[in-house]
Design brief:
228 residues, 9 helices, single chain, mainly alpha
Length: 228
């Protein structure tokens, strides 16, 4: 009887209630600070930012303008167009993973695995099979379905595909401006004008052509269409 009483007196029951059912405020603050610190890298690696900023930079170079529009403007355009393209995917991740995790319906590990599925689906649509096979071979992974491939393999393949697509679009943008440069250079040579740089003469014509065809709208429309 004495032993049973001592055991009952020394037993301690701790009840946390529902405090562990969802992440605390401190955990949410740490997660938010972590996401904000790596957000630029995530934006560059896992969205269409790379393709967009390269095409915009090549368009500016094709026009013969080195600092107009400024880099801040091009980065801002690429940023908001990337958010526009990723909005459906981000909304789906928020619906199936983030909100259930914040409400304590699933653990952090489960939320991560559930949330990466929409992101993988979007990235795989923009990734070439050759690039994906290359990164899978470099990672020494066995043959598996694309959706079963880890993000560490998909992200490099996705970036390689973005570079390839960006340079293809940039080549198409360069061609008409190169033709204008050749026509102006041939005209100046036939007139015997050798002291005047051809690029200086062709620059107003290229700007005029770009404005008449509403070039920025066409470039952005082509970029958005290339992600569909």
């Amino acid at each position: 009887m004495l032993t049973s009483a001592l055991v009952a007196a020394n037993s301690v029951t701790i009840n946390f209630g529902h405090t562990l059912a969802k992440p605390t405020t401190s955990v949410l603050v740490i997660l938010t600070a972590t996401v904000l610190s790596v957000a630029p890298s995530l934006l560059i690696m896992m969205s269409g930012f790379v393709r967009i900023i390269i095409v915009l930079g090549l368009t500016r170079q094709a026009l013969g303008l080195s600092t107009t529009p400024p880099n801040q403007v091009l980065v801002g355009i690429a940023f908001f167009v990337s958010l526009f393209l990723m909005a459906p995917t981000l909304g789906q991740i928020n619906h199936v993973a983030l909100q259930p995790y914040l409400h304590g319906a699933m653990s952090a590990t489960t939320a991560f695995h559930v949330g990466e599925v929409p992101l993988k689906t979007w990235m795989l649509k923009q990734t070439g099979t050759q690039e994906l096979a290359l990164t899978s071979h470099m990672a020494h992974l066995p043959t598996m379905t694309p959706t079963a491939t880890p993000l560490t393999v998909i992200i490099p393949a996705f970036l390689l595909s973005q570079l390839k697509s960006a340079f293809i679009i940039g080549f198409v943008v360069f061609v008409p401006f190169m033709i204008i440069d050749l026509v102006v250079a041939a005209t100046l040579m036939s007139m015997g004008v050798v002291m005047l740089p051809p690029t200086l003469v062709s620059l107003p014509f290229k700007i005029l052509l770009f404005v008449l065809v509403n070039g920025w709208v066409l470039v952005l429309q082509t970029l958005v269409t290339s992600f569909r």
